[in-house]
Design a protein that fits this description.
The structure is a single chain. The protein is built from 15 helices and 13 strands. The protein has 339 residues and is an alpha/beta fold. The longest helix is centred in the N-terminal third of the chain and has 19 residues, at 23-41.
């Protein structure tokens, strides 16, 4: 397990039962999250579930992978969330010739001071929008591993911290599409949640033609919150109470994926941490200062499905990771909700 995850686990143990967020803190989370969702829904037609998952991942301090066929609004969703936050935003268009140094930065010799100086790359922002991430080579994709896990970048032996909050919003096309490289398992595991946009309904597509036909609604979108407020909200979400029985439920679910005969790769310990954090954010958006099993169940597929690898038999049977998780949710014992 990476050191960062060990630190997070030790923090949970040392802190013990942290005080739950106050009513005022929860009200702030609800108010700002509602404003975020309303603003995003005004641009992203007919996809409230995808918008809600994106906001949950933001409050859980996670990264988002938006995967689907071209033209369904993946980049628009990422750009809309970034535009709603008054914070530093950088966009990276991933291409086969993109270099790791374009992302992380590079040390350049300065003739005036006769020494090397570091020039930050695109990763140095609060929100990084990575468009079509799986069109870059595996070497370039791996440049994101350290920054996504530890919120830092190491170049030429020197480590640089990234700004907080820090979030990567990446889009990718299905691997069957031309010119794509598969994301390594280690990188998929660093994304807290995967969102599949899907095609809009006929009514939503008609509304889109009305609103987007004459221009982009992004042009009129204004930030509804800032980086400082998001940081305070993240801290409030961290304090949402999760009982020992609830944490055991999360572990039981991830353990079940590792022993399932339908899977050849189950969920990692990092996935357990991400599932708990996402469940806390889901509970906070419901106005609760404690997590219920319903929160865990709601976030299981977005958080776990993209990390799982099916066996050949499961693929031949046309089963998806979501199908396997639905079966496991039926089998794993649900604890009684307690505080």
């Amino acid at each position: 397990m990476p050191a960062h995850d060990e630190v997070q686990q030790s923090h949970e143990t040392v802190r013990g039962e942290r005080p739950t967020p106050s009513g005022a803190a929860l009200d702030q989370v609800l108010q700002v999250a509602s404003s975020l969702q309303n603003a995003m829904n005004s641009v992203i037609e007919g996809k409230p579930a995808a918008v809600r998952t994106a906001v949950i991942a933001l409050l859980a301090e996670g990264h988002i992978l938006i995967e689907d066929v071209p033209g369904v609004g993946k980049t628009m969703l990422a750009k809309t969330l970034a535009r709603c936050i008054d914070a530093s935003v950088r966009r990276v268009q991933f291409t086969p010739d993109l270099l790791p140094s374009d992302i992380t930065g590079v040390s350049v010799f300065n003739q005036d001071v006769r020494d090397f100086e570091f020039r930050p790359g695109a990763i140095f922002a609060n929100v990084v929008v990575g468009d079509e991430i799986n069109r870059a080579s595996p070497k370039t994709q791996s440049a994101l591993l350290e920054s996504m896990e530890e919120a830092q970048v190491t170049v030429d032996g020197t480590t640089y911290s990234l700004p907080r909050p820090f979030m990567v919003l990446a889009t990718q096309n299905p691997i069957e599409m031309e010119g794509t490289y598969p994301l390594p398992e280690a990188q998929r595991d660093r994304f807290m949640a995967r969102i599949s946009m899907g095609y809009p309904s006929a009514r939503s597509e008609l509304d889109m033609l009305d609103q987007h036909g004459g221009g982009s609604p992004l042009d009129d979108l204004r930030p509804v919150t800032d980086a400082t407020t998001i940081t305070h909200m993240i801290e409030s979400v961290r304090r949402v109470h999760a009982s020992q029985a609830l944490k055991q439920y999360v572990v039981d679910l991830t353990q079940a994926t590792r022993t399932s005969s339908a899977l050849r790769l189950g969920a990692s310990p990092r996935a357990s941490l991400h599932l708990l954090r996402a469940s806390r954010a889901h509970a906070a958006l419901a106005g609760r200062d404690h997590v219920l099993p319903d929160d865990v169940q709601s976030m299981t597929t977005p958080v776990l499905a993209h990390r799982l690898m099916l066996t050949g038999e499961s693929q031949l049977a046309h089963r998806s990771a979501a199908d396997v998780l639905a079966d496991l949710l039926q089998r794993v014992r649900v604890p009684a909700p307690t505080r």
